[in-house]
Specification:
- The protein is of the alpha/beta class and 360 residues long.
- It is built from 14 helices and 13 strands.
- The strands form 3 sheets. The protein has an 8-stranded mixed β-sheet with strand order 8-9-5-10-4-11-12-13, with helices on both faces. Strands 1-2-3 form a 3-stranded mixed β-sheet, with helices on one face. A two-stranded antiparallel sheet has the order 6-7.
- The longest helix is centred in the middle third of the chain and has 18 residues.
- The structure holds adenosine-5'-diphosphate.
- Adenosine-5'-diphosphate binds next to helix 4, strand 12 and helix 12.
Amino acid sequence: MIDNQSIRKKIQEVKYPGFSRDILSFGLIKEVTIDEDQVYITLEITTSNSSVPEEIAKNLKAKVGEIDGISNVNVKMEVTTPDTKVTGNETNQRNNPTQQNIETLQQVRFIIAVASGKGGVGKSTISVNLACALQDILGKRNKPNSVGIMDCDIYGPSIPLMLGVTQQPEIEENLIIPVSNHGICTISMGLLIDEDTPVVWRGPMIMKTIKQFSENVNWGQLEILIVDLPPGTGDAQLSLTQTLPLDGALIVTTPQKVASEVARRGARMFEKVSVPIIGVIENMSDSIEEPNSKNAIFGNGGGLETAKALQTQLLGSIPLDINVRKGGDLGIPIYAKNKNHIISSNFSCFIKIFYQGSYS
Ligand code: ADP
């Protein structure tokens, strides 16, 4: 007797090529039907690498075919290519049918992930300051209130603290309304769950969080949505690209060798899923007072090396500076406090580079 449970178990043994997670938990399985000794499996997958669906189909047929009584496993792949090419339209028209179904993101023009390999390298700090700098520049172009941050860092959701938002989000017509400060709207696990929830319970929530934050939040009309990713592995990156139409990824690293090596590994996951890497930002570089110092706490050069290894550009460096740390703790990012500060001007530079490229 062929039953759903044994098929499910076999599907769980098939990993997404190059990743440790199985195809079922990534949500790729659309339908499974059994007709006597025949099994029909339909998958929905977003990739531009044709070898990925081929490998999955081969492994799926082999695994499910091991079940006694099955004579044939029919695999149907519905493959969509991530459309990362940016148009000059008011709203970014993407071709991916799966992703276009996300109504709440229809009016978001660009979606950019901010990622790092290691935690604690300043990914959230960079996200909030970039958001403030973008907000400032877009305000001058008559596009106020058009930057959002989706905080998917469920291990350390620090965006609310760094933006100084504490209020619980409200719900209207079954959608969560993001909360705002400094003109930036955000949604974060930090606003939705108890701080005391053990981290071990948060791991399995990454995929769900990304999906919920995409589908159940009323993002409204935004020029840019910054997605602050959890540090590390490739699973979150892959979940994200299966769910969101990403236009690019920014990689944050410190100058330290150990951080830049992990950042490179994390970034390669974006390459695998064909998301363009916009560039690398080095954070916690040598202090402004002592540029190129031999005493730089996290060393020198990791950002440039990471950029070279990923064949992308180093967008710039943010020094280790007490004002940056204080801004984060007080909920007033350094850019929001003083946009003329030398560190703030570094953030403006990144944005000029961003808009000069293909994102204009
Ligand atoms: P991540 O998001 O990568 O975990 P955070 O942005 O939360 O990292 O930063 C970790 C800590 O380091 C925070 O306390 C933050 O205020 C501090 N920090 C980040 N960047 C800088 C910097 N350039 N100078 C000083 N402190 C920084």
